[in-house]
From TrEMBL:
Methylates the class 1 translation termination release factors RF1/PrfA and RF2/PrfB on the glutamine residue of the universally conserved GGQ motif. The keyword Glycosyltransferase does not apply. It comes from Bombella intestini. Its EC number is 2.1.1.297. This is Release factor glutamine methyltransferase. GO terms for biological process: methylation. Residues 6-73 form the Release factor glutamine methyltransferase N-terminal domain. It is an enzyme of class 2 (transferase).
Length: 287
C-alpha cells in the first residue's frame, strides 16, 4: 500500500478520536510497525500489506485512546529505553526533574552508594539514578509484583541488573537499612479528580499509582514518616509533587524533622521535585 495514503487515513482517524498530535503519532506508529527509522520512513513509498495491517490495528487501538507506549511496549526516559505495561505508569518527562535535582544536590558521582525507589513502577527513577552513580546499588519497591518484575526486566535491558534489586512491598514497611538517596513518585491525584483524567490515563494506567486519597496526600504521610529512618546521614530524598502540593507536603515533611533543600520546577513551570534531608544530630537535639 502507498505510505502516503496510509498516513493520511491514520491521521484523520486519530484526529477524529481527539488525538492532538495525530500526524506525528501516525508517523511514529508506522515506523514501529515497519521497523523503520524516521529517515527510512521519509525514503520509502510503499508499505507491505502485512505491515499495513499491523499499522492499522495499532491505529485502531490508539483511536480508542490506548497510550502509544502501551501499543509499542516501551518508552524512553532519561537516557534509558524501558519496557512498559498496564501494570505501571508510563514514565513522563516531568519526572526527569527529580533526576536533575538529585544530580545538583549529590554532585560527587562516586560518593552515592545506595539508592531506594519507593513505588518504583517501571524502575525508571532508580535505573536512571544508577546510570549516573556508577558505584551505587539500588532497591526498588512496588506494591504490585508484576511491576517489580517488569522493573527487573528493565534493569537487565539497560545493563544494570547487577546493581539493582526489586521487591513487592507496601512502601518501606519491609525495608531495612539506610540509603544515601531515596526517590519516589507516589500517587498524588485527589480521589475526586480521578474521574476527570483524560481517557488515555483513566482507562489504561493503574489507578493505584494515581489515586492519592481524598486530599492527594495519603502516600506523602507514609513517606515522610519513613524517611527519617531510611536516610543515611548526609543523604537526601527527592519526591515528585502534583500541582499545588508544595506547601502541604513541606508541612508534612517538616513535622517529621525533615528539611526542605529545594523545590525544583519542571519545564512547564510546575513545582515538581521536593528535595529533603534529615539530620540525625539535629533531630537528637530537638528531641
Amino acid at each position: 500500500m502507498r505510505k502516503i495514503n496510509l498516513l493520511e487515513q491514520a491521521r484523520e482517524r486519530l484526529f477524529q478520536a481527539g488525538i492532538e498530535e495525530a500526524a506525528s503519532e501516525a508517523r511514529l506508529l508506522l515506523c514501529w510497525a515497519c521497523g523503520w527509522t524516521r529517515m527510512e520512513l521519509m525514503q520509502r513509498d510503499d508499505v507491505p500489506d502485512e505491515v499495513a495491517e499491523k499499522f492499522q490495528a495499532a491505529i485502531q487501538r490508539r483511536s480508542q485512546r490506548e497510550p502509544v507506549a502501551f501499543i509499542i511496549g516501551e518508552q524512553g526516559f532519561w537516557t534509558l529505553d524501558l519496557y512498559v505495561s498496564p501494570e505501571t505508569l508510563i514514565p513522563r518527562g516531568d519526572s526527569e526533574t527529580l533526576l536533575e535535582a538529585l544530580l545538583d544536590h549529590r554532585r560527587d558521582r562516586q560518593a552515592v552508594r545506595s539508592v531506594l525507589d519507593l513505588g518504583t513502577g517501571t524502575g525508571c527513577l532508580l535505573l536512571a539514578a544508577l546510570s549516573e552513580y556508577p558505584q551505587a546499588w539500588g532497591l526498588g519497591v512496588d506494591i504490585a509484583p508484576a511491576a517489580a518484575a517488569l522493573a527487573q526486566q528493565n534493569a537487565r535491558r539497560n545493563g544494570l541488573s547487577d546493581r539493582a534489586d526489586f521487591m513487592a512491598g507496601d512502601w518501606a514497611a519491609a525495608v531495612r537499612g539506610q540509603f544515601d538517596v531515596v526517590l519516589s513518585n507516589p500517587p498524588y491525584i485527589e480521589h475526586a479528580d480521578m474521574a476527570r483524567l483524560m481517557p488515555d490515563v483513566a482507562v489504561y494506567e493503574p489507578h493505584r499509582a494515581l489515586d492519592g486519597g481524598d486530599d492527594g496526600l495519603t502516600a506523602y504521610r507514609i513517606l515522610c514518616k519513613s524517611l527519617p529512618r531510611l536516610l543515611a546521614e548526609g543523604g537526601c530524598a527527592v519526591l515528585e509533587l502534583g500541582i499545588g502540593q508544595t506547601q502541604a507536603v513541606t508541612e508534612l515533611a517538616e513535622a517529621e524533622g525533615l528539611t526542605v533543600l529545594e523545590c525544583r520546577k519542571d519545564l512547564g513551570g510546575v513545582e515538581r521535585a521536593l528535595v529533603l534531608a534529615f539530620s540525625k544530630e539535629s533531630s537528637w537535639l530537638m528531641g
